[in-house]
Design brief:
Length: about 210
């Protein structure tokens, strides 16, 4: 592990529960890897490109095996800049809250930018998908108000951690670790207990990487 991209998907900055656990995890990880280079990407602070008509048309050209039309080249190069950055790291930490049972719209926009044919995946002549992010390690810090992971009757509503694992698998990432920060809403003692569990889980995970 040499270079890690720290993706922050909460607009709450230091008040974010996922950010608190992510920072704790990174501090522990740096004890094991003092030379680790960490680059932080705050998705609510950067100007992500729109996935607009030119980008969509360029995607269809690629899916059909055609060259990108010159009129769409600029839009496609803007998308490629982000996937090149993501793929330049050998590891990634995604810290995200749960919004409406899923992920924040900025994280979804970022994923839509990255997930492009020829950039993070490709199709062979039979239509089979090959992920191009193979060999990378990704850690997910998944915070939620509800105690997902401890109540089976509600786990079917988890479109946050389940979605992120499915997406990472699609682009070829198989080495995935996760820490739940749940539930983060309720009486002070309940939230404190959830945070203590998350910090302990983050320590254990960092010690095994």
């Amino acid at each position: 592990m040499n270079r890690l991209l720290h993706i922050c998907a909460s607009p709450r900055k230091d008040r974010s529960r996922s950010a608190m656990v992510a920072d704790h995890f990174l501090a522990r990880l740096k004890e094991r890897y003092p030379a680790l280079v960490v680059e932080r990407l705050d998705l609510f602070d950067v100007d992500l490109p729109s996935f607009d008509q030119d980008a969509v048309e360029g995607r269809y050209h690629l899916l059909a095996g055609d060259a990108v039309d010159p009129a769409q080249t600029a839009a496609w190069q803007d998308l490629k800049k982000w996937s090149d950055q993501f793929l330049s790291f050998d590891s990634c930490l995604i810290a995200t809250p749960m919004w409406n049972f899923g992920i924040p719209y900025r994280l979804k926009q970022y994923i839509d930018i990255l997930t492009q044919p020829g950039l993070t995946f490709r199709n062979d002549s039979n239509g089979n998908v090959e992920g191009l992010a193979q060999g990378r390690r990704v850690i997910i810090i998944a915070a939620s108000a509800m105690p997902f992971g401890s109540l089976p009757e509600i786990d079917g509503l988890d479109f946050q951690l389940a979605y992120l694992k499915a997406w990472l698998g699609f682009i070829g990432v198989t080495d995935i670790g996760a820490v739940r920060v749940a539930g983060t809403f309720g009486p002070e003692d309940v939230v404190a207990a959830a945070m203590a569990r998350a910090f302990a889980d983050a320590d254990r995970l960092a010690d095994t990487i």
